[in-house]
Amino acid sequence: MESYTADEDSTHTLVATFLYPNCVCTRFAVSSLNSSLSLSKPLSISSLSASLSLSLSREQLLEFAMAGRRRKKMKLLDETITDNKRKGTTEKHESLELQTWSDIPTELLEIILSRLTLDDNVRASMVCKRWQSTAISVRVVNQSPWLMYFPKFGNLYEFYDPSKRKTHSLELPELNGSRVCYTKDGWLLLYRPRSHRVFFFNPFTRKVIKLPKFELTYQIVAFSCAPTSSNCILFTVKHISPTIVAISTCHAGATKWVTVNYQNRLPFVSSIWNKLVFCNGLFYCLSLTGWLGVFDPMERTWSVLSVPPPKCPENFFAKNWWKGKFMAEHNGDLLVIYTCSSENPIVFKLDPANMVWEEMQNLDGISLFVSFLSSHSRTDLLGILRNSVYFSKVRFYGRRCILYSLSDCRYYPRKQCYDWGEQNPFENIWIEPPQDFSGFS
Predict the structure, then answer these.
(1) Where is the F-box domain (predicted)?
(2) Which CATH superfamily groups domain 177-307?
(3) Dihedral sign for Cα atoms in the order 320, 244, 227, 152
């Protein structure tokens, strides 16, 4: 018999001739095998069966046949899996192409929108209804400070909300005979000249926190944070001579003030016209002539920085110019605002690395609320112009607050003549309002 090399299909045919010699399918398979082979003598079922019986037993042939079937099934299974993978990949690509921005998972969308500024959050809320509901749920809207007015007579105090141009009123007999000194975190620091009594007062909760008596004559005083905190520290500086200042500190629950005299390396005159700000754990004091003193309450050290005063036009130093000078802090930056009745305000920021005051052309979206005794900075406010300075003055019968926009380089209402010397610096102060307005009329 001529020799030939059998593939998998011909091998199955050989096995079939031995196992099922009388089957019609076997005959057809042998016939197909003869057609595919170029042999001089065709193969017959009997010859194939006899050849296999000499070399293999029936059990071996059955095992061989079953192995072949398994290989064929595995091959078909592999082809099916490959086709399914290819089909699944195609469907996945098609589904990805059909996805829109509204299909972003809610958890991921909340994380993204929570990191946006108020303006960007509002813009993102216009993408679709789902984005709008998510943007509103994570939107952070800060509250504008209110301008609190101290009446000349009586106990009715007014609070002006510049964002809504609305005035609220409160009867506060607890403040009778007192003078406001400072405000922070919704708390007032007050002083009664006749009794030398110093105390904290929250006008919205009516809570009073008493402090040891202390005589505040021609000096200013500030505190670091709300008196309900154990970290609250009070600070005041008094001029003794051009080279010596007396610094007094206290805290809620103390029985007395602690006073220490410090030597000035540079001339520094402390007066009631100075400005105080607590920033980065330090008390900064801006003198009448623009020099900056720094007190570290932890180390209990005092120094006058060798930073030249901010450069201003000569006409800034006109009559009552010191009433138009303010200082604030924002996220660790120290800001000074100089104003004059005949000039637009100038804003400076301290560059601690180079020890210079840099003039700012814009406030990077910040809104400043400045008053003679204390000032505040805010971002993400509704109804408030960004990049603007709000002053403690109200015109047009209390219906509009005076502000200066650094973006537009103009006052609102449009400037006619704002003489800061006309105003009593102790008649009002900015204060943080409560979230709940139900107690106001």
Answers:
(1) 98-153
(2) YVTN repeat-like/Quinoprotein amine dehydrogenase (2.130.10.10)
(3) negative
